[in-house]
């Protein structure tokens, strides 16, 4: 919708309604939780992770905050209200981050919702405390390991700190994001090197170089663009593009993860080859990163056009004098 996609408005609503219906079916009213796995027999398996619940709230919040379709917003809002009360029971900082991102999107549609604000403030305090507890010399992070979707943690803290009197939160988020960015560039390479999933990076231990996965690059693009919007520091534009170019072959193996023939994205980098599977998570990671960068370029072009328009009268006067 935001980009004016070639997909028709009707098709976009149809697709969105289908995915929203899936989330409705995945929600278990008896537990207030989303279930994560549907069996081949089309039966929901009972347990759902905190991460999947947080991601679902993030998706629902995005519909509420961004969609122009009133029907979609209404359905997403109802499900969001049913699912939000469970979030404060979560213990995973990553799940907190997903929930916070969803709440910030939701508040674009309902800026005065007290329940959402209460949950947001509680999770923010937990994240800040977790950062203080885990931080030590040479380790500026929220946990005792770097695992997956790492950049979502500082991104969530930044997204929820756009108002007044949030300086300490912004400083914490930028410190963590800067440390993560440095950890994901290994000399002498100047390209983006995400934390590998085969062992991750435990505090005081060795970081895993592989397997490198698309979710890491997408998360870094999003977090750096949020930092750019809040600070105007051009470093974050460079970091965002560095992470995106990982998809296009600027990586350890010099191989493109994006497949122009299929439009999909390969599932990651092994030490000696790309994973040729093209799963939904990987493809969506590439597409969301691409959309965010295109939106950045479009918004900057608009700002440039407005500035040129404002400058036009004085420019015309200058030209008249010179003639």
Q: Order of strands across the widest beta sheet?
A: 1-2
Query: How much helical structure, as a percent, in the residues?
Result: 55-70%
In this structure, how is the largest beta sheet organized? 2 strands, antiparallel
The number of helices is 10
Distance between the termini: 47 Å
The average pLDDT is 91
Assembly annotation: single chain
Low-confidence stretches: 314-323
> Rg from C-alpha positions?
21 Å
Please identify the structural class as seen in this structure: mainly alpha
The percentage of residues in β strands lies in: under 5%
Number of strands: 6
How do the helices and strands follow one another from N- to C-terminus? Answer: HEEHHHHEHHEHHEEH
User: What's the shape?
Assistant: globular
Describe, in plain words, how this protein is organized in 3D.
With 323 residues, the protein is mainly α. 58% of the residues lie in helices and 4% in strands. It is built from ten helices and six strands, in the order αββααααβααβααββα. The chain has helices at 9-26, 50-66, 70-83, 93-109, 114-134, 152-159, 167-183, 214-231, 234-247, 280-322, and strands at residues 27-28, 33-34, 145-146, 201-202, 268-269, 274-275. The strands form three sheets. The chain has a two-stranded antiparallel sheet with strand order 1-2. Strands 3-4 form a two-stranded antiparallel sheet. α6 runs antiparallel to α7. The longest helix is centred in the C-terminal third of the chain and has 43 residues, at 280-322. The radius of gyration is 21 Å and the shape is globular. 33% of the residues are buried. Mean pLDDT is 91; it is low at 314-323.
């Amino acid at each position: 919708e935001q980009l004016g996609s070639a997909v028709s408005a009707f098709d976009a609503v149809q697709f969105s309604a289908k995915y929203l219906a899936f989330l409705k079916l995945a929600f278990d009213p008896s537990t207030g939780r989303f279930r994560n796995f549907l069996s081949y027999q089309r039966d929901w398996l009972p347990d759902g992770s905190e991460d999947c619940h947080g991601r679902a709230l993030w998706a629902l919040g995005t519909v509420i905050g961004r969609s122009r379709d009133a029907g979609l917003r209404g359905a997403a809002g109802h499900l969001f209200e049913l699912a939000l009360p469970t979030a404060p029971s979560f213990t995973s900082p990553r799940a907190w981050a997903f929930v916070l991102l969803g709440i910030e999107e939701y508040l674009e549609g309902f800026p005065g919702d007290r329940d959402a604000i209460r949950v947001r403030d509680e999770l923010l305090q937990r994240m800040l405390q977790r950062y203080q507890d885990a931080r030590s010399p040479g380790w500026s992070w929220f946990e005792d390991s770097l695992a997956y979707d790492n950049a979502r943690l500082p991104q969530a803290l930044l997204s929820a700190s756009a108002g007044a009197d949030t300086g300490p939160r912004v400083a914490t988020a930028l410190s963590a994001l800067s440390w993560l960015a440095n950890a994901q560039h290994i000399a002498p390479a100047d390209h983006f090197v995400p934390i590998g999933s085969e062992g991750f990076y435990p505090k005081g231990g060795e970081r895993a170089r592989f397997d490198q996965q698309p979710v890491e690059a997408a998360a870094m693009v999003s977090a750096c663009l949020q930092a750019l919007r809040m600070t105007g520091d051009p470093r974050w534009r460079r970091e965002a593009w560095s992470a995106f170019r990982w998809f296009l072959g600027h990586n350890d193996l010099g191989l493109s993860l994006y497949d122009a023939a299929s439009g999909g994205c390969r599932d990651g980098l092994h030490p000696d080859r790309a994973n040729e599977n093209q799963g939904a998570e990987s493809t969506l990671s590439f597409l969301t990163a691409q959309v965010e960068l295109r939106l950045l370029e479009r918004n900057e072009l608009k700002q440039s056009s407005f500035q040129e328009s404002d400058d036009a009268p004085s420019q015309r006067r200058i030209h008249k004098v010179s003639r």
